[in-house]
Amino acid sequence: MGGRGGGLSQERDFSTRPRRRAARPVDLALLALGVAALLVSLYATASAARSLQRARARVDEARAETQAAQARVRELEARREPAQAVAYQALLTTEAPPPRVLADLVALMPGDVRLDAVSLSYADPLSLRVDVVARSASSYDLFLDRLQRSPRFTDVLPGEENRDGELRTSIQMAYRPL
Amino acid sequence: MFVALDAASVSGGTGARSGGGFRLASHARVSLGEGALVPAPFAPNVVRPGEVADALRALARSLRIGDAPVCLLLPDGMARLALLEVPADVTPQEYARFRIVPGLPYPAAEAVIDVLPVGPGRAVVAAARRGVIEGYEAVADQAGIVQDRLDLTPLAALSALLREPGDAVGLTVDVILGDAALCLAAHQGGRLRTLRNRRRDPGPDEPGRLAEEIQRTAALAGDGAAPRVRVVGAGARDLLARWRVAGGTAEPGWRSEDAAGVEISELAWVGGAGA
Fold first, then answer.
1. Do B112 and A14 touch (CB under 8 A)?
2. Which H or E run includes A170?
3. Could you give the CA distance from residue B4 to residue A12 in angstroms, rounded to a whole number?
4. Where are the alpha helices (H) located in B43-152, listed in sequence order?
5. What is the CA radius of gyration of chain B?
6. Which among A161, A142, A89 has a CA at the least distance from the CA of A120?
């Protein structure tokens, strides 16, 4: 309700809607500043978008390279020739002959644990299966503990235990020549 | 740039004060059919918007207004005018709301008020109905005219006349003629003493009635002796001529130095150019 203008204004205005005012230099300067800020922000946004796109492309490229390398490894493993396997077995036999494997295993055995049977499989890795007899469960547990802590024996997998009197069981493991 | 609307025509142009008068840079006038625009305080004034918009378009073409914002001047007869003594602790607008608005024939919320300050503690206030003003704004918009501010022709003319009060001793009565209404303003020494607003009744008897109104106005202002009389607005030239024949003395409210073919005292809106 009511008119605009100050009490002693000479510029009467009975308009019912906002008056269109000519732009002053300061308005134009502010407008120019706003447009410049908008342009800068648009450039920064576009720049960031381009960087994001480049980063995503690099990630995709790296992922593709990784997948390609893994595929190549699998392919090479699958393509391992029998001659290579024989050579590897020969190498294992040299580096881990049965006496050395057996000596390393016996070194870990407590006094009241004995071996009933040992079988070696010279493949990759060199795997062992031993039948063990222990006079007490605690001795067997100690033997298992030593095996698991040893750097030469890995993938230790105890079998079912028979604890009627003496403890009888079998253990599978892998041997790693150092 | 000014565009004035009244009952008989739309007119406008640009002008500036020059010496003792005005210099018109441009001027054009387009007549309206009778009843197309009827200045009134309550009812919509633009009765035939299409016709008024066409006239405004023709005027805009003639004046080459283009996109330039113009000051719209609305005619006498559509607003309530009053001279108020304004207390020191209130603005003229606020005081007008207290004194004028309750007597208006429409809700107070619809009143648009502005003022013409006429010295310390005195102001001419004008109250117009928002809906009436919106009618004028709409027709100007329809004609493609870009509106700047909006003023009333009688206030623009009175403002210019009071800036050139003339003799500081005697009383001056200024007659501002619109097509539908007129204002009589009595002032002395630059101080506005009385303001009267009347509907016009054109006809052979009008010059005589107006002469009597001038005498009453002078009497109300406290000086019944022969005042100086100045006239501007629609019909000023004929009125002055008829008074002259009858032995009266009056003069145009303003003159032009170079308005060839244009009787500038007929153009009340020119007062806006002197603001």
1. yes
2. strand A167-175
3. 15
4. 49-63, 92-99, 130-142
5. 18
6. A89
Please indicate if any CB of chain A lies within 8 Å of the CB of B144.
no
Residues B209 and B175 reside in one and the same domain: yes
**Domain containing residue B33: CATH number:** 3.30.420.40
- Quick one: how far is CA A62 from the chain centroid? 15
ipTM: 0.84
Which CATH number, 3.30.565.10, 3.30.1360.100, 3.60.15.10, 3.40.50.620, labels domain A88-175? 3.30.1360.100
CB contact under 8 A, B155 and A13: no
Total residue count of chain B as it appears in this document: 275
pLDDT attached to residue B127: 94
Q: Higher-confidence residue: A153 or B14?
A: A153
CB-closest option in B69, B146, B150 to A13:
B150
Residue A4 has pLDDT above 50, yes or no: no
Contacts B151 to A, Cβ<8 Å:
12-14
Model confidence at A9, pLDDT cuts 50, 70, 90, reads very low
pLDDT at A7: 33
pTM for the predicted model, two decimal places: 0.64
Please report which confidence band the pLDDT of residue A82 belongs to, taking 50, 70 and 90 as the band edges. Answer: low
CB within 8 Å: B110 and A1: yes
Q: Does one domain contain both B66 and B145?
A: yes
> Cβ contact (<8 Å) for B114 and A3?
yes
Quickly count: other Cβ atoms within 10 Å of residue A173's Cβ: 22
pLDDT at res. B49: 96
Contact call for residues B5 and B48 (beta carbons, < 8 A): no
Tell me how long chain A is. Answer: 178
Taking contacts as CB-CB distances below 8 angstroms, the residues of chain A near B116 are 12
Cα B41-B46-B47 angle, rounded to 5 deg = 105
Identity (one letter) of the amino acid at B67? D
- Produce one character per residue of B115-141: b if its CB has 16 or more CB atoms within 10 Å, e if not: bbbbeeebbbbbbbbbebbbbbbebbe
Cβ atoms of B64 and B143 closer than 8 Å:
no
Average pLDDT, chain B: 89
As a whole number of Å, the CA-based R_g of chain A is 41
Q: Chains A, B: CB contacts under 8 A, how many?
A: 75
B134: closest CA of chain A, how far (Å): 7
| Each residue's pLDDT tens digit, B8-34 | 999 998 877 776 677 788 889 999 999
Cα separation, A147 vs A156, whole angstroms:
7
Interchain pair A1, B152: CB under 8 A: no
Sign of CA dihedral B124, B125, B131, B137: positive
